[in-house]
Amino acid sequence: MSLSETELTFAEQGSQENWLSIDMPYYAYEGDEVVVRCSGRDNNKIKRLMFYKDGAWLPSYYNTYIISNAGPSDSDSYYCKAKRRVLLFIDGTEQTRSVWFTVRELFPAPQLTTRTLQPTEGASVTLSCGTQLPADRSETQLHYSFYRGAIWKEDSGYYWCEATTVSHSVSKQSHQSYIQVQRIPVSGALLETQPQRDQVVEGQTLVLVCSVAKGTGKTRFSWHREDTRESLGQKSQRSQRAELEIPVIRESHAGCYSCTADNGNGLIQSEAVNVTVRIPVSRPVLTFSVPGAQALTGDVVELRCEDKRASAPMRYRSYDDNFPWGTPRRLWRRRFRQARCGRKASWDLRLRGIPYKQAWARKKNSKVEFPPKIRFMNGPHRCEGRVEVEEEDRWGTVCDDGWDMKGVAVVCRELGCGAAKHTPAGILYLPVAEETQPVFIQVALCNGTEEALAECEQVETFDCGHDEDAGAVCKGR
């Protein structure tokens, strides 16, 4: 019988005997803290315990999963799975029954009521606010608050207050005061851009922000383009600022812009703002010229690098790709015929030794193998996290089967992170790897002295999922 068939037999038998159980309430109220526990007949035999909600894996620690602030979205079916040791080299999988959990509403949204919806002028208006608690939570104390928005011109009138004892034996009123709500005219109109007007890049979103230093009431904001006399749009709102968004900036949007504001006491206009659209660099064109029909050792070859559309200023650098380990080497010895700012640049390069084409041919025919790239994901710093490797331009994870401090030592050495410190589970570094992401290394058998993880012996078993991803912690940061 194969290992997979053995595991299936024990899983079915364990489920029938309820070897693993889940403990959680059937319902709770909004805002409650709910603790979900899973336990087996012998917890010492549990190697890994996992919680699920509607079939989706839930990150948890030890044998509990906590819902700290229950809400309607937490209502669902919950169950647990455990991988337990059955024999020395055989593991079994256990699963609990599914428990349906419901989050009940603590109280419905309160209702604000009044004696009449259309009071006459001079009459008083009483506002009431109320809601209903469930019987088993009737002792819950609620605090009621009444809110009122900003005061406007139409709210002018007499205001007073009243103080009363609990027994109503003493009641006193303040003096009545007439409040005349004055409307402040708008002033100090200002137009700003996000990003700043000299940092707008083609393809980005441009936001024109029109604001006033002073002004109350409903204000009508309008945006205009000065050079084309084009009206871009307007908004009316009770605010001292408003925004107009241009989703995608093009080179044709460069020009002068202004805005106006009016709250009924006179229109004011901002100063014009000149918006410059910068064109990002694209793939540059490299050309070269030689004195004769072909370049010979000792000749001066002029290399010209240029981007005909990108906006200045720009910085150009030259590289020599003829390097043994595949990393381009920057040519520091160069002389610019044009300053670093501008759309074109060129430099002189004196060829020495073998011709360039011959060196390139040697590199193409070499059999140097490069180790796969490696990285830490979702850790608190660059020397901790889930271990991932790159193969054929795709990033994949490493299974924790056989993963120990020797493997961590190799990864820490490869990434320049010092000595190995700990071997945590990769699922602790959220978010977990996506299901479509491959597991490139199933079992890595390292002796701890390798310079790279690719040098470790590997066993291809292909039975690992992302719940078994390997993690690593190094001393260096």
TrEMBL record:
Record keywords, A-Z: Cell membrane, Disulfide bond, Glycoprotein, Immunoglobulin domain, Membrane, Repeat, Signal
Pfam families reported in the protein's UniProt record: Ig_2 (PF13895), Ig_3 (PF13927), SRCR (PF00530)
Gene Ontology, cellular component aspect: external side of plasma membrane
Keyword field contains Disulfide bond: yes
Family matches, as InterPro entries: Ig-like_dom (IPR007110), Ig-like_dom_sf (IPR036179), Ig-like_fold (IPR013783), Ig_Fc_receptor (IPR050488), Ig_sub (IPR003599), Ig_sub2 (IPR003598), SRCR (IPR001190), SRCR-like_dom_sf (IPR036772)
Cell compartment(s), UniProt: Cell membrane
Disulphides: C446-C456
Primary localization class, coarse: membrane
Domain Ig-like: from-to ranges: 59-171, 185-276
Location of the SRCR domain: 374-475
Name this protein carries in UniProt: Uncharacterized protein
Species in which this protein is naturally found: Moschus moschiferus (Siberian musk deer)
